[in-house]
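Please go through the protein record below and explain what the tokens say about the fold. Record follows.
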Amino acid sequence: MRRLILPALALLLAACSGGRPGGDLDVAVVGEGTLAEELAQEASRATLIRRGSGGEVVAGVATSWRFLDDGDDLILRLAPLRWPGVGERPGLELVAQDVALGLRRSGNEGRAALAAAGLSRRGTARAPIARVVELAPQPATPLLLDWLAEPALAVRDRRGRLFPGPYVLEKDGGAWRLQRRSEGPLPDARAASIRIAPVAAAAAVSAFAKGEVQLVLGEGLAGLGAARAAGQGRALKLETVPGVIGLAINAKSGLLTDVRLRRALLLAADGRPMANRLALALLVPQNRLWDGLPPPTDDRARPAEERRALAAALLREIGIGPEQPLRLSLLVPAGSEFQALAETLAANLQPLGISLAVQRARPGGFAAARRSGAADLALVEQTARVADVVAHLDQWRCGRVRPCSAAADRLLDDAAAAGNDLTARQAAAAAAEAALMADPAFIPLLRPVRWALVANELSGFQANLLGRHPLGRIAGDGR
């Protein structure tokens, strides 16, 4: 039996304080994803479990928990909290039945997280007594606590109403403003107020140098060149995170319907010169969809020259070579980093007879350009929110991408069904990944990297394996 009981974490829900211990935190986010919104939700929503500065799970609405049945079932004890009242009348007590029924009210936003946590089926969340929640995921997952920390699975009532988190959230144009609810700084609400704004890389780096923002978070590679060139020294923090950078194949592209062409791209595309181009030690090549899996045993394990020879032979079968080149379009996000990676990849493939026409998306327009389906390939960063290999590989299931592998789907089902048997889970996931690479819809190239600029006066920022930094745990010293 596993047992983990943490000290209680009080979630004070008093009115906003007149004082400002912890100061104000101004955050700029560089990138085209949803990181800014995710950070705002994480600070403004109450979850059963929360994340600490190091990415570890800590107490949230649940003050303690323990696992039963060899880790398959989870018992959580709730803090004595009340819903917001009306006027001078106090609100009702938050009870386990609210939590159990509220999980099913997560809607589309929480569907993927519920499935990954094994809580999609009825009866997987129960309320045996007023302040105890019992979770019996089907199938069990060794990462249940991590998924319960996701804002998508925030505590709700049976009607779907969100229980208040440490901060009040307001939208301010394209930015988010957060005001602390509690009277004094808590581990989850140290700064009195937080402003989160998506900002272009050059503007974010400039604002940091002027002291206008205390924290710049890079959602991926975009803006890293500007941050390095700014000469901020020890302020620049770099982290590798779980996931993959690679080429997404447009299933609607007639040129890529031939599996031999897709296999040739998988064998020929080499992440090593791409990593060398950016001269970043943490940016390492990755020839798997998930770096934590065992090294591949298929043709990807061959030396580079043998892989290129196999790729050339496949291309000759379909009439492609240096004398009869094939032109493919490659969509890349805005930013010099992606342009450099694309140019290096193009130089790598050109001797084999594949010519890449690089299409650079306008700032903020990469997602829309990719949805349009105009390009044959797209250079994308797929970063995992939870270090869950099964949930990560699920994005390449049939029904979500083409081409796909029914065999891989079955193996992913086996991996999920393995529950807390980590050996069986890993083996099935590795087999699923190999099946996905037999007829690839995605070409892995590199391990993702995130960067940040952190002002000297900030405390609470801690590099970690997930690259997750709860803003409520960061504050300025003396601001």
